[in-house]
Specification:
Layout: H1 16-23, H2 29-32, E1 36-40, H3 44-56, E2 59-63, E3 81-82, H4 94-104, H5 111-130, E4 156-157, H6 163-181, E5 184-187, E6 190-198, E7 201-209, E8 215-219, E9 222-225, H7 246-253, E10 258-259, E11 264-270, E12 293-297, H8 300-307, E13 321-322, H9 324-328, H10 338-353, E14 362-365, H11 367-380, H12 388-414, E15 423-432, E16 435-436, E17 449-451, H13 469-489, H14 503-521, H15 528-542, H16 549-569, H17 581-605, H18 633-636, E18 638-643, E19 652-657
């Protein structure tokens, strides 16, 4: 049985990473040519890791289920990337980024990992600028910053509303250089369907060519999982529809512990769903909360008038609007962390103040920002006594320069002009803080198997601060894994090529083929989407923004019954030996049906509220924090790492106790 050993180095927090790098084993350049590494996933984490490992001299096999790494879901990240550069001179530092991240995660993350993340964050910006990433710049030519939720400084670097896309293009260009040199062998349109364990070590994967259906064996000295999160367990989420948990779930079933599955992030700034037939939700970047103010009408009469079309939001005066985040959290206002903002929106809508037909929407309003920027521009341009129309014109130009593509996207989807009328937003499933448990080296409980980026659990605790996903993905891929993997691979320089002609590879391949044959030959009554939608409904209603004991127990029972029905009654059209998206989905939904039950089990076990995990039984009942989430540090200051034992209900809990030596453990307050 695997034992949890975080391998956190001894010594002062600020020196751990530096001292650790000074003493780990290295692989010399000549020997790196003898070592193969598989990287599954080519988003920001996988792409940066592939490029860097190949640059160092390793032979890399990179796998993407898309037709190109450029289509990884990282491309959808809009708002920015955090780094403690203190360009604004507003008091930022490594320690402050570390503190904000641990506090934002509701004190449920590993101190050493988070401090390392803060330390390498500054290097990421230099790396990306060198690659040509077109970060926004201020008037003087310096890189510009804006603020995101949960912080009191401006540390978010951005490229308009396309930050993820531009960063991914940087990583992709670095990959292409290595592909051209022959150091990266790229496998597009391939999906990993199992990991192969030889003598207790990860030594390869079984993959399916998604174009031809061919099942392939690939060997390596180490396997890196960089396949993203599991938000699509909810069916409706802001994730790309192809995003899935299969790679992570396969290594879990082979011995990698799955940590904190109940920690999922509900993003407060999404376009509300429009009907039962919708298959995806759209995120509006958190950067909009820098200038947008969130509100609902104060009076129920106005709510009903707006819903029925008798009034427009622009008809309401300032006195008739409830800027509820500014009212409740004066210190942070509209920039409270995502979990706080999401629950506040849900509370207002549950109380009946939602402003769309379904009652599930609040307003995100840019009127004040347009007016403020317009007056500032009029002064700069020497325009005396500008008209209201001129102020609006000048202000809209500034807002367009900062957020233009986001406004354009909103208008295309909703058919409403957000410059003239407030956006409507509502929380939606977005990011997963839980994932495969890893130690300080980013290695899972399977020797030689690593997990990086959103696929692991390591840095965000129970809630991720905005603009930290890109930071973690690139930190892991560019600056952490390339060091730590060498410490393991130093023992493999004389191993030689790993053969795929072994019983371990044969058994794994046969298991994959058997499962595919089942799906193709099972003549059931229902489509894969039928089951995915049913699972998503259970997850959203009983494991969503709020959870309680009764609902979680019901969820476990209902998901198990749904899974049993799936294996009896699912139908998959087409053939195995061809491009077959329904077959791909069947395997992924089968994994979600197991993961969903473990998610509910983890949420049931954690009877405290923390970050994105809100248990209705654990709420502050009085005092200044009345109604806010209530943690239980005495009983739950640990990482819940689950060991696979067959049925999700039988999973065994292992606890990594969290130590807080450099930050005082206290209840969060953003008031």
């Amino acid at each position: 049985m695997a034992i949890l050993d975080s391998k956190v180095p001894k010594g002062p927090l600020k020196d751990k990473w530096t001292d650790y790098k000074d003493h780990i084993d290295l692989v010399n350049p000549a020997n790196k040519r003898l070592i193969d590494v598989i990287v599954v996933g080519t988003g920001l984490a996988g792409g940066s890791a592939s490029a860097t490992l190949a640059e160092l001299g390793y032979n890399v096999k990179a796998f993407a289920y898309q037709d190109s790494p450029r289509r990884a879901h990282s491309i959808a990240a809009q708002g920015g990337i955090n780094a403690a550069k203190n360009y604004q001179g507003d008091g930022d530092s490594f320690y402050r980024l570390f503190y904000d991240t641990v506090k934002g995660g509701d004190y449920r993350s590993r101190e050493a990992n988070v401090y390392r993340l803060a330390q390498v964050s500054a290097n990421i910006i230099d790396q990306c600028v060198a690659q040509g990433v077109p970060f926004a710049r201020d008037y003087g030519g310096q890189l510009d910053n804006r603020s995101f939720g949960g912080v009191l400084v401006s540390r978010t670097f951005y490229a308009k509303g396309q930050t993820g896309q531009q960063l991914l293009l940087g990583a992709y260009s670095a990959m292409n250089r290595q592909i051209a040199r022959g150091k990266i062998e790229m496998f597009n349109r391939h999906e990993m369907l199992d990991v192969v364990i030889v003598d207790g070590k990860a030594r390869g994967i079984i993959a399916r060519n998604l174009v031809t259906g061919e099942i392939e064996r690939h060997s390596a000295h180490a396997v890196v999982i960089a396949s993203g999160g599991y938000g699509n367990v909810y069916f409706l989420s802001t994730n790309a529809m192809g995003s899935n948990a299969t790679a992570a779930w396969k290594i879990h079933k082979k011995g990698a512990f799955f940590a904190n599955p109940c920690y999922t992030q509900i993003h407060p700034t999404c376009i509300p769903r429009s009907g039962d037939y919708q298959s995806k939700l759209t995120l509006m970047s958190e950067s909009l909360r820098n200038d947008g103010r969130i509100w609902v009408p104060k009076n129920m009469d106005d709510v009903m008038a707006i819903r029925e079309g008798r009034k427009k939001p622009t008809d309401l005066s300032e006195e008739e609007r409830d800027y509820y985040l500014e009212r409740r959290y004066p210190a942070f206002g509209n920039l409270v962390p995502r979990d706080v903002a999401s629950r506040a929106a849900k509370e207002r809508c549950d109380a009946g103040y939602g402003v769309n037909a379904t009652g599930e929407a609040v307003y995100l309003d840019f009127k004040s920002a347009i007016e403020r920027y317009g007056k500032e521009q009029a002064k700069l341009k020497g325009i005396e006594n500008p008209s209201a129309a001129k102020i609006t014109e000048l202000g809209e130009a500034i807002v367009e320069a900062k957020y233009g593509n986001l406004f354009q996207m909103y208008e295309k989807i909703v058919d409403d002009n957000p410059y003239k009328t407030p956006m409507m937003i509502y929380p939606a499933t977005h990011y997963t803080m839980g994932g495969i448990w890893v130690d300080y080296n980013l290695m899972t409980t399977i020797p030689g198997c690593y997990a990086i980026g959103e696929a692991n659990f390591s840095d965000h605790g129970a809630n991720r601060l905005g603009a930290s996903a890109l930071m973690q993905g690139l930190a892991d891929g560019y600056f952490v894994l390339p060091y730590t993997i060498g410490d393991y691979l130093a023992d493999d320089i004389r191993t030689g090529k790993i053969s795929t002609d072994t019983k371990e590879f044969e058994e794994a391949e046969n298991a994959v083929k058997d499962r595919i044959d089942f799906f193709i030959n099972n003549k059931g009554e229902h489509s894969v989407d039928y089951y995915h939608k049913k699972l998503g409904k259970i997850m959203w209603e009983k494991c969503g923004m709020a959870r309680n004991e009764q609902g979680l127990k019901e969820a476990m029972t209902e998901i198990k019954a749904l899974r049993e029905d799936f294996w009896k009654n699912v139908t998959v059209p087409g053939d195995a030996n061809e491009m077959n998206p329904e077959l791909e989905k069947a395997g992924r939904v089968a994994d979600f049906l197991e993961l969903g039950e473990l998610f509910a089990k983890d949420a049931l076990n954690r009877t405290e509220s923390c970050g994105g995990h809100f248990r209705e039984e654990s709420v502050e009942l009085d005092g200044p924090q009345k109604g806010e989430a209530k943690r239980d540090d005495e009983n739950f200051a640990y990482v819940a790492a689950w060991e696979y034992k067959g049925e999700p209900a039988d999973a065994v809990l292992h606890k990594e106790e969290l130590e807080f030596n450099d930050i005082e453990l206290k209840q969060r307050s953003y008031k």
